[in-house]
Design goal:
By secondary structure, the chain is mainly beta. The chain has 1 helix and 7 strands, in the order βββαββββ.
Amino acid sequence: MAASPFGNVAVALDKTSYSAGEAVHARVSLELPRPTKVRGVYAVLTCSERKKEQVTRMMTPDEQQRRQDLGVPYSTDLKTEIREHSSNWFFQEKKIAGEQILYKAELSASFQLPHNAMPTSLEFGHDNAIHIWRLTVRVDIPLALDMNASAEVHVEGLGR
């Protein structure tokens, strides 16, 4: 943890990768520049999903005219577009410390991955989806900017 005039918060996971249904344990190190009142410390485990879908639709007369004006050849009035949608596939939040005065602290957080947890994927695969698991810790400080830290959780598996 590097020194900062605003303090530091860091998240360390107990393992480098996990299987579906396994428990994720994290150690949270918190160091503030002076004793500070916090409303709470929260840990959130999320899995965000980005999904690609291909949509085919009829071109409007304006689109057809624009293609003609630009000299772009087309053999059909159909247009295929690829769209991306983002959503939260999984969300779980836990309060790991309540209202108190903190200066330096070591806290822990544990989450159970669901048995149907999608594996981490950073590229679009056979299912046209990307899944990113992340454990984020937020220190809620009244009348000041909250402190945040996160760690990527690698979930192994083949997916559906």
